[in-house]
Amino acid sequence: MCTEKERYQRIVQKGVSPFECDIATGDAAHEMMVKQYARSAADQERPLPHELRSEKIMNHAMCYLLHNILDEFPESADQRAAWYNFLWSRTRALRKEVTQLSMSDLLALNLVERCTRLHILFGYVLCDLETEHFDTAMNNETLGKCLQTLRHLYEDFAKRGIPCENEPEFRAYDVMLHMNDTNVLSQVLSYRSDVRQSQPICLALKLAGAFRDKNYCRFFRLLKNEATFLQCCVSHKLFGATRSNAISIMVNSYGRNAFPLEKLRNILAFDLIEEVTETLNIYGLRTESESDHVMLTKDGLTLNESVPMKPYQWIDQKKTGKLSQVVYGPNLFQFFASRCDVSNSFNHRNEYTNDKVLEAVLDGSNIPVSSDPSAFSFAQSAGSLSMQATMEQKRKMEVERIKRKLVFEDSPTSVQAFLLPAQMIFQLVDLLELEIHEFSVLAP
Amino acid sequence: MASFHSIDDYFSNIDNLSAQYNWKAGEKIAKLISLVDQHAEAAFLHIEAYGSRSKRCRVTEDEIIDEIVCLHLHVLYNVQVAQDFITAQGTQIQILQLFNKEILQKRRGENWFLPIFYRLCTDLRWLSKEAESCVSGDDEGDSSPNSFYESAAKVITESYRTCVVDSAADTGTSKKVAMLNMTNQLFQIYFQINKLNLLKPLIRAIDNSGTLYNEFLMADKVAYNYFLGRKAMFDADLNLAEKSLLYAFRNCPAESMSNKRKILIYLIPVKMFLGHMPTFALLHEYRLDEFQEVVAAVKEGNLAQLDAALANNEAFFIKSGIFLMLEKLRMITFRTLFKKVSTIVGTAQIPLDAFQTALRVVGVTDVDTDELECIIANLIASKKIKGYLSHGHGKLVIAKTNAFPTLSGISAT
């Protein structure tokens, strides 16, 4: 799930995430490594072939992330922050590859759809973390970008006449995120009629209408009775504003009277009475410990105070399964944790042996292929100690020679890295800040 | 405008006009560097980088106009041939920057060239819109949404600043007269990108323009009031909205039916919020029959009818940008209905059941007691009803006098 070069690079540069290490030993585990997001170099327009993954692997990577990482929701704030950053970076890499490869097939759509659901989920389950651990604004921005990509994909599929079965779901999220936006409203008009009249869109429009009407009662009732888990996650962002509006309206319309807390809890969609009193106190409304009512009075009202966000049980209960199932989508999520074959050009003795291109070439010619891999490996097998010493010397000389060559010839040069084992080649690359453009194999 | 046969023809025409130094000539040149004039179709004018050719036609009268024309041909090339709106928009920005630096800032005591500038701004807005729709969504993309509109606003604002400090005493040649047109241009951009608050200083400047206001063209004044009225609607300042839109409507010439209609589309909801319903005749005259059902429903206090009316004409209302406004009429409709109920019940203390019954009568069946209280609470909080709710007794207690004040008397919506 991670390209070979990146794996070596990150191991050497110590850029391996704890999520990619063997639990027992703490060592980097190649089969657990997932391609990281990295900005392209300024002049690098196209990715190089060895930096890309196959579609099958991309799909496997996403499922792996959902099954092995997402479902293991950690306890502490620090762990959650790391968990979020890992998932964000790895899924961002997937999205980037979709763009780089100009993928526009069903797999691309599925990947981006799942990324979108992921970011909706993050906004909700991490809502009670401090900004240093989880930046809501950044997450919202990413969510926006995912939705924009989806809009383009849906348009594209529509032009080709391919139906997208999840389109209503995501168009509805779009509406819910932009309840006050006329532009989004006019876009709804341009949806196909089957999308326009779908249940998610109708609900989203009703919800938006209730929100704009300041009908706090209907807003929460629609969410409780008709919305899915993810739809609640999206609307969760508006709970604070809706509730403070509600309190403001009630304080101005019920006179100086007592109002039952239980009713307030129900209307404003809290789980527990304690949560209601906590919120009311922050807004400057006093509650007595014995009483189950609150005096709705304007005195000392401080609606500008912000109430900390938190998840709710009534929302959590709407989940269709584990987090991985929620993000995977309506179809059943099944993942068999098979060990995906990790591509490796080097054998267990760090000899460069596995070169599919060379093998294909040699297969087609009549050069006898020896069955002993060491016969044409570039690293001599460890012989006597003196041999090894000579080897060491030769290697050092080789390194020096290459360095000199590069200092004097500033152009891309083909460096023949004889006699150097794999690890050393990459250390050299790093040391000299080389860019490998072509890894070709010379016959001995 | 007569069509041209050759590029020589085109250039010599502009050359002659540039020698005249009057407003009329300015207007004619404006047409010749616009993107929508007939000349824009002529293939021989779609030329990339004409200015760098060694052998070419020139506007000998005016070096800067010559440069502008060459850049204009470059824009035409990008629009018509290369279909590259991003480059076209960038080039148009260059033209405006050039105009600002070499003409607005350097030529004292003249303003005949302003029509050219107005045209350049309008075309820039169109190009910005086209450029925005070209940009695809990409995680690594540098352009943030609306960056083309922003760059357009920036160059127009810079030019605005140049004009505003023009010290020419004679208003006939002062560049200050451009203030209103440029304010209108910026209005349109800011409406698009939702940054209406940036207009505050510009609006204040117009308010403080004194006698200069008389020099502005009526067309610009009508447009300004139209935009001002629409902005006031967003700011929920109904009185300003009414005043501005009425001015625009009255001063818009009767021949411009479509413009008058555009103004009415916003004026009607404003008036309805203030409690004044349009007549059937008015709606029919301006082909705004879509409003008929809405008006009838609000007058009667019939919620279900209102919802149906909004749904039936949804496309029209959304396209006109007033759908969200009209939704707020629901509150007005509830108020009308509840006022009728209170008249029927007759006492100051009205059981909520009475309102519930009334809702059922007009076909609303999905509002329970909690939601009913919520709606009434909203009406009280927005001062449409004077009274208070008693949750414990399930009653609305209204004031003895004027419990349902006239809508025009209430300032907040």
Automatic annotation (TrEMBL), chain A:
Cellular-component GO terms for this entry: cytoplasm; transcription export complex 2
InterPro entries referenced in this protein's UniProt entry, alphabetically: SAC3/GANP/THP3, SAC3/GANP/THP3_conserved
One Gene Ontology biological process: mRNA export from nucleus
Task: Give the Gene3D superfamilies listed for this entry.
Answer: 1.25.40.990
**Which Pfam families does this entry report, sorted A to Z?**
SAC3_GANP
Give the SAC3/GANP/THP3 conserved domain ranges.
1-288
Indicate what this protein is called per its UniProt record: SAC3/GANP/THP3 conserved domain-containing protein
- Which species? Caenorhabditis japonica
TrEMBL record, chain B:
Lineage: superkingdom:
Eukaryota
Quick one: a GO biological-process term for this protein?
Answer: post-transcriptional tethering of RNA polymerase II gene DNA at nuclear periphery
Q: Where is the PCI domain?
A: 222-403
Gene3D superfamilies per record: Winged helix-like DNA-binding domain superfamily/Winged helix DNA-binding domain
Q: Spell out the molecular function terms from Gene Ontology.
A: double-stranded DNA binding; RNA binding
Instruction: Kindly state one GO CC term assigned in the UniProt record.
Output: transcription export complex 2
**Family note:** Belongs to the CSN12 family.
* Entry protein name: PCI domain-containing protein 2 homolog
| The organism of origin for this protein | Caenorhabditis japonica
